[in-house]
Amino acid sequence: MKPFMNISLLLLVIVICLSQPLVIHSILGKYTVHIINGFQNNEVLHAHCKSKDDDLGFREISMNEEFNWTFRRNIGDTTLFFCNMWWSGGHLVFNVYDAKDDTILTNCSYGGSRGECMWRMNEDGIYLYNMEYHEYHSMHKWGP
Ligand SMILES: *[C@@H]1O[C@H](CO)[C@@H](O)[C@H](O)[C@H]1NC(C)=O
Ligand SMILES: *[C@@H]1O[C@H](CO)[C@@H](O)[C@H](O)[C@H]1NC(C)=O
Fold it and tell me: Which coarse location class applies to the principal site listed for this UniProt protein (predicted)?
């Protein structure tokens, strides 16, 4: 009798959790990160992006091309992706998705917990697209 009651209780907890819209959104929530070469001078953009668990490898992105990947958000999302990027005019390591960074999340989100993080690398710096206002924000300058 006892194990059976525990299973009923567990099922009840799961049903209650799933009935909360916020939980459903975070289970289904998907994010795509775009790494866009926005250079005008035909330069190649080099990018090495990683999270704690995934190494997305070394990428060479040509002018007007992009590299992208999609992942799911989860309950208690702690996902963090960062990239090491360089070209002939500079170098920088920065976070491209951070579940704890409101600036990144609000700019990327287009409803619920879905979103697109569109990072555009220009000669004069690094820009993030705001999905709600449809404009690029300057986020970083290139380092040496
Ligand atoms: C992702 O990048 C590829 C090229 O690498 C491109 O063909 C594709 O359209 C991109 N996907 C999205 C959702 O933008
Ligand atoms: C988006 O990024 C800009 C630049 O960092 C920041 O000022 C702004 O608060 C962020 N969020 C929104 C919703 O625009």
Answer: secreted
